[in-house]
Amino acid sequence: MKRFIYIMASLFVLVIFARVNAHADSATITPEDRGAIIDLIAHYGHTFDRRDGEGMANLFTDDGEWLAFPNEVKEPVITLKGRKEIAVFANDRQENFRKVGIVTKHFMLNTVMEITSPTRVKTSSMALITWQRPTMGDPKPVPVQGGYYNHIIVKQDGEWKFQQIEVRTSGVYTPQEQYGDKLDTAE
Q1: Contact between residue 102 and residue 185 where contact means Cβ atoms under 8 Å apart
Q2: What is the CATH number of the domain that holds 165?
Q3: Facing residues of 161 across strands?
């Protein structure tokens, strides 16, 4: 009887360890993947700030989504679906900034990652967004938004892409809010 109990206990422990190890193996990514994900997040800010809407949109899956929740609203005030909508929005927004001499900078910091599978992760990055107007006599960067960018990132055809970005920041969102009467066009 003791031998039977020992065998059953051993089998139980083996089954538990097998399940734990199977789950751990399915929820890991390589260091190269981790680096690619961090690079993807950095490229988001760089492409937007360099006024490359198409480049930014290409960081998303074909059906990717971009949602904006400014100033802690519960429902998104902007929902973009697909690369075309994302590119048009980014290009239009940057064109409006260009007209009034605003240069944007997105600082994506302290990214944390939840690995849900070897091809899917959820990340959250602290964000600080600054504006400056170097050609308008206002070269000092000014923080205008702070908060979090939450991402769902998937690996498709060997590349990591945004499936969804939730922008959850607080601050000012239009040049008029920031500069008021001092807003002249750069044209």
Answers
A1: no
A2: 3.10.450.50
A3: 154
